[in-house]
Amino acid sequence: SQQGEEDPQALSIQEGENATMNCSYKTSINNLQWYRQNSGRGLVHLILIRSNEREKHSGRLRVTLDTSKKSSSLLITASRAADTASYFCATAPFSGGYNKLIFGAGTRLAVHP
Amino acid sequence: DGGITQSPKYLFRKEGQNVTLSCEQNLNHDAMYWYRQDPGQGLRLIYYSQIVNDFQKGDIAEGYSVSREKKESFPLTVTSAQKNPTAFYLCASSAGTGQSEQYFGPGTRLTVT
Question: Are A109 and A21 contacting, i.e. CB atoms less than 8 angstroms apart?
């Protein structure tokens, strides 16, 4: 089952511009995480935001979470060509017992020099 | 260096053959996971293991099998019963539950013809 859905599917920007990606989900969550994947590689964890947090920063990354709208956004400021990758949100559903992460289909970001 | 290794990076097999993908971690993590990724899609959970000698089916376990005899190792066998085995396979581990940060290996691209 796919809970998180990223928007847009693809994003093309120039170096120095900001990139914003959105994630919507359907059920209550314990936390939401963002991962990055370079082409043909494994995923790298970027940031985790808990359900009782509204905003979190890490370097040039800013993540917001709106649990009332069941949505999150990832902002990359002053983008660089090296930021070119796919970005996935992963939700940790709130339910009893062991829970897993559910990944969306991702946003493909291309940053042009 | 601590991390997760997967081997081989590329694997080619004939239809009808079983194939085993290797995943090793030296992060001392209890939990390990196998995901499948198809082009333009998110990750789908195949199997996970929270502790040695225990594992659970994920969302798409049919045609796959796993073992967890050692904490460091979680091999995945793609059997001939898997109808569409060609995909990119990712192994991950986490220190906590399935909802904590996951660390990914570099992946194995399996092609079955």
Answer: yes
Q: Is the confidence at residue A3, as pLDDT, over 90?
A: no
Q: How far is A15 from chain B (nearest CA, A)?
A: 24
Q: Is B52 helix (H, G, I), strand (E, B) or coil?
A: coil
Q: Quick one: pLDDT band at residue B96, thresholds 50, 70, 90? A: confident
- 8 Å CB contact of A43 and B48: no
pLDDT of residue A1: 45
Token pair 């986490």: residue: B94
Q: Do B98 and A101 touch (CB under 8 A)?
A: yes
CB B5 within 8 A of CB B105: yes
| Token pair in block for residue A32 | 């939401």
DSSP letter assigned to residue A46: E
What are the Cα distances from residue B32, in Å, to A13, A44, A91, B4, B96?
36, 16, 18, 10, 10
Q: Helices (DSSP H) in B14-89: which residue ranges?
A: none
In residues, how long is chain B? 113
Tokens 């999150």 sit on residue: A72
Res A77 pLDDT > 90: yes
Helices (H), B28-109: none
Residue to substitute from A21, A44, A101, interface B, most B β-carbons within 10 A: A101
